[in-house]
Amino acid sequence: IAFIGDSESDTSEKFMGYRDALRNADIPINPNRIIGGIRNQKEGGVGLEQLLANNVEFDAIFVDTDFKALGVIEKLRDIGIYVPDKVKIVSFDAMEEYTDFMPYLTSIRIPFDDMFLTAMDEINSQRARKKMVSKDIIFQGRQIIRSTCGCMLKS
What is the pLDDT of residue 76? Predict the structure, then answer.
């Protein structure tokens, strides 16, 4: 399983999750399967080219955003590698604007609405107490299974 994304910015928690998941599954981490510094859709395709140039085997790629995953999928298609037949793709965001893109992107939905509402509640609560404190709140993403993971049930 390869990683393509921006392992040096705010998405580094996604990279750490990728790394931890491999460790938990006793899958060795191969630095040649990790492509960092990718920041947009076009660079998603460039990241795939770098991964292929590393000459390592992989059958799945975790991409840190849907936007970059589209670039990866487009580049795979350009070179005749089809998702999910040869390579599975999972990404992050589950943005609604990508639901028309074929193949349908398997993704982790980030609960932005819940995050916003919780932040507003917390600010109002702290203002009412006249005491502002830093607080970590963990939100659970939700896996949206579509066709790019290769796990859709066949009818």
Answer: 97
Residues 6+ apart with CB under 8 A from 120: none
Residue 153 has pLDDT above 70, yes or no: no
Question: ω before 84 within 30° of 0 (cis)?
Answer: yes
Whole-number Å distance between alpha carbons of 13 and 20? 10
Token pair belonging to 84: 């999910």
For residue 38, CA distances in Å to 34, 63, 65, 67, 149 come to: 11, 10, 10, 11, 21
pLDDT over threshold 70, residue 98: no
Burial class (CB in 10 A: 0-12, 13-18, 19+), 42: middle
Burial class (CB in 10 A: 0-12, 13-18, 19+), 144: middle
CA geometry: angle at 91 spanning 67 and 115, to 5°?
Answer: 85
Task: Report the distance separating Cα 71 and Cα 40, nearest Å.
Answer: 8
The DSSP code for 82 is: -
**pLDDT surpassing 70 at residue 11:** no
Chain-centroid distance of CA 43 in Å reads 14
